Amino acid sequence: MENYWDKAISFEDYVQTGRQRLENPANQQETDYKPYYELGLQRIERTLKKYAADEEQLKELASKNFDGKILIISEVWCGDASATVPALVKFFEGKNEVRIFLRDSDKSLISQFLTNNTESIPKVVILNNDFSVKGSWGPRPEYGRQLLAKFKADPETYTRDQFYNDLQLYYAKNRGKDAVQEILELL
After folding, report:
1. Around Cβ 32, how many Cβ atoms within 10 Å?
2. Side by side, which strands form the sheet with 98-102?
3. In whole angstroms, how far apart are CA 131 and each of 63, 67, 69?
4. pTM of the full predicted structure?
5. Which residues pair with 72 in a beta bridge?
6. What is the per-residue pLDDT across 126-136, written as a single tens digit (0 to 9) for each?
């Protein structure tokens, strides 16, 4: 895990990488994903403007005495990540170091943290100081998982568009609070 941590980047570099890929795509995937990079960057900015850490959650974090690190496997184009990653970065700011590992740069890390045999992101890896894994979380809070299950159970009645719309409305209203809480429970 220490090698992945060393290859991970800051949140600022993560956002800058997304901007660079939007403006100057280096390959066909980045070209194809341009609308998603644009939307992801807009959502990141919205989350950064609207997010405020919950005082009770800050107290809970302090009571945990967790002095490890937070490694997030992510990509800017991901809708779940654009709502969750900036909230987590802001929540842990000044308390625990957070770095982001770009999933598509090296699949060997995400392959260790699959969700139902998929490379779903974001994936949060909670590391102790010795780089052992304390726990992992992701790619979305429980409410998001329930929406996904509803879509998968009956995609004709609850369409993909409805699922994505409901999920983004939830993220906009919740502002990362549920994700933070679920991660706190793992510390």
Report:
1. 11
2. 98-102, 69-74, 123-127, 133-137
3. 21, 11, 8
4. 0.95
5. 100, 124
6. 999 999 999 99
Residues 6+ apart with CB under 8 A from 64: 184, 187
175 closest CA partner among 109, 66, 64, 83: 83
Q: Which is nearest to 15 in space by CA: 56, 53, 43? A: 43
**How many Å apart are CA 94 and CA 27, to the nearest integer?**
36
Could you give the 3-state DSSP secondary structure of residue 133?
strand
Angle at alpha carbon of residue 91, lines to 107 and 78, rounded to 5°? 35
Q: Are 45 and 81 in contact (CB under 8 A)?
A: no
Q: Which of the residues in the chain have pLDDT under 50?
A: none
What is the rounded distance in angstroms from the CA atom of residue 139 to the CA atom of residue 82? 11
Q: Cα dihedral sign for 149, 155, 156, 158? A: positive
User: Maximum Cα–Cα distance for the chain, whole Å?
Assistant: 48
For the chain, what is the total number of helices (H) and then of strands (E)?
Answer: 10, 4
Q: What are phi and psi of 95, to 5 degrees?
A: -120, -55
- Among the listed residues 34, 55, 36, 53, the one whose alpha carbon sits nearest the alpha carbon of residue 44: 36
24: its two tokens = 């100057």
